[in-house]
Design brief:
By secondary structure, this protein is an all-alpha fold. Helix content is about 85%, strand content about 0%. The protein is built from three helices and no strands.
């Protein structure tokens, strides 16, 4: 903070002794010490508040950056494939093939199911 050596402190003490006298000097030194400690605490408090604000500002910047990155990724996922009309046609062909497969499976399931009336008939035909 201040670059004050022993010689400077000695000169200040001698001047203070001459000006204030031996009775008032200890009270004055104590008062100056309290002011200095109060100033140090205030500066320390301000420094910690500034550090906290800087840390919060950095966190906000990181949050904004992550949010922008997530928004870009979400837009890319929402946007249809930009590979051109051929990719869109391939997607449509794949979709229609999947629908055809489902309808064929449904037809097979319906054929494999045996109706209760047919079961009775087969059971009645047995000897």
């Amino acid at each position: 903070m201040f670059d004050i050596g022993f010689a400077e402190l000695l000169i200040i003490a001698v001047v203070g002794l001459v000006v204030l006298g031996p009775e008032k000097l200890p009270v004055a030194v104590r008062t100056v010490g309290l002011w200095v400690s109060k100033a140090k605490r205030t500066l320390s408090s301000i420094q910690s508040e500034i550090s906290e604000e800087l840390r919060l500002d950095e966190m906000k910047r990181q949050i904004v950056m992550k949010q922008e990155e997530l928004d870009r990724e979400l837009d890319e996922m929402r946007r249809p494939s930009s590979e051109g009309p051929a990719a869109t046609q391939v997607q449509q062909t794949t979709h229609s093939a999947a629908v055809d497969d489902k309808s064929e499976q449904t037809g097979k399931n319906q054929q494999s199911e045996v109706k209760p009336e047919q079961e009775n008939t087969k059971a009645d035909d047995r000897p």
